[in-house]
């Protein structure tokens, strides 16, 4: 249960992304600065943490060992994740972005065949290609059904163009984030902790953010003071606290695709936290009864997903012990 709890706490801090990005959009800020400033501001926070823990040298050695992988998967996991999310925030309300982002629950499960997981056999531990966890995936569909119900009334009021611009970039991000995260876990192994890995990926993705910032200066001009402050808050809450917590949770279930899918499913709580945040910060209207039905489905699906994922592993291990006896 510990990885699940950490994942839910991470979801709380991730929700600041959707609420504050929407706030910046409503005040006239550009998605370009919402995206690039977050990762630029993350570096000082993470650098200070890693230095104080005495782990900077080890991180630099790891990055020097395989720089191509660091640059590639950091661009995928951070660049192709947050730039589309920020762009989508400029095209639709925060609830739509947070709701659509839950596609990552299924996206992460569908990526399982691209990776290897550790299995217990009578001959010891072996690595086998991951399989799509269909039982856990069925629980994820319950979560997505709840999200769909939550957004049913509002989505009917949006134009097709707004739906496409608000949904397609988020779907791209939903595959990029777990793919980049898992690939970097493979590259790093057990040699780096979550703080080191997030700092390394942020540094490796920095060229992309600097290029995006240059594009922003040319096309929309410098960011306002208000957007700069809110981007700083997103960097701290979502970029540092939430990302480190989420990476820590995924590290705890490394090599187990079933439980990894359960941890990634905790991000469904972002919808609940985003709704609360918009009510408090943006004075958004209270969700209808239909939306609350969706919220209940999300919670139920999350509980079932966690239960199935944590129950299936002991059953598999018991079967292995039975066969070997």
Automatic annotation (TrEMBL):
Family annotation (Pfam families): EmrE
Stretches of the chain forming a coiled coil according to its record: none
Entry keyword Transmembrane helix: yes
Transmembrane parts of this sequence: 31-50, 70-89, 95-116, 128-152, 158-177, 198-221, 227-247, 268-284, 290-308
Keywords per UniProt: Membrane, Transmembrane, Transmembrane helix
Protein name as it appears in the record: Multidrug resistance efflux transporter family protein
Gene source species: Cytobacillus depressus
Lineage: Bacteria, Bacillati, Bacillota, Bacilli, Bacillales
């Amino acid at each position: 249960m510990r990885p699940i709890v950490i994942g839910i706490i991470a979801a709380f801090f991730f929700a600041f992304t959707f609420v504050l990005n929407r706030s910046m959009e409503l005040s006239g800020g550009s998605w370009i600065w919402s995206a690039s400033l977050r990762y630029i501001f993350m570096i000082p926070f993470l650098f200070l943490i890693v230095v104080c823990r005495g782990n900077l040298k080890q991180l630099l050695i790891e990055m020097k060992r395989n720089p191509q992988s660091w640059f590639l998967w950091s661009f995928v996991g951070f660049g192709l994740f947050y730039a589309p999310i920020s762009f989508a925030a400029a095209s639709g309300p925060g609830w739509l972005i947070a709701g659509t982002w839950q596609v990552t629950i299924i996206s992460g499960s569908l990526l399982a065949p691209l990776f290897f997981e550790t299995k217990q056999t009578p001959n010891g531990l072996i690595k086998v290609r991951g399989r799509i966890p269909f039982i856990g995936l069925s629980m994820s569909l319950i979560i997505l059904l709840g999200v769909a119900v939550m957004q049913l009334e509002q989505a009917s009021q949006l134009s097709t163009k707004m739906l496409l611009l608000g949904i397609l970039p988020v779907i791209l991000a939903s595959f990029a984030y777990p793919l980049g995260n898992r690939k970097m876990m493979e590259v790093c192994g057990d040699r780096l902790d979550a703080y080191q890995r997030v700092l390394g990926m942020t540094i490796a993705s920095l060229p992309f953010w600097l290029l995006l910032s240059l594009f922003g200066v040319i096309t929309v001009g410098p960011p306002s003071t208000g957007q700069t402050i809110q981007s700083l808050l997103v960097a701290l809450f979502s970029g540092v606290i939430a990302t480190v917590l989420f990476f820590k949770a995924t590290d705890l279930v490394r090599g187990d695709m079933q439980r990894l899918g359960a941890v990634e499913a905790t991000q469904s709580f972002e919808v609940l936290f985003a709704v609360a945040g918009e009510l408090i910060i943006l004075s958004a209207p209270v969700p209808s009864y239909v939306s609350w039905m969706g919220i209940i489905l999300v919670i139920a699906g999350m509980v079932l997903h966690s239960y199935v994922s944590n129950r299936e592993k002991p059953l598999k291990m018991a079967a292995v012990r039975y066969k070997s006896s």
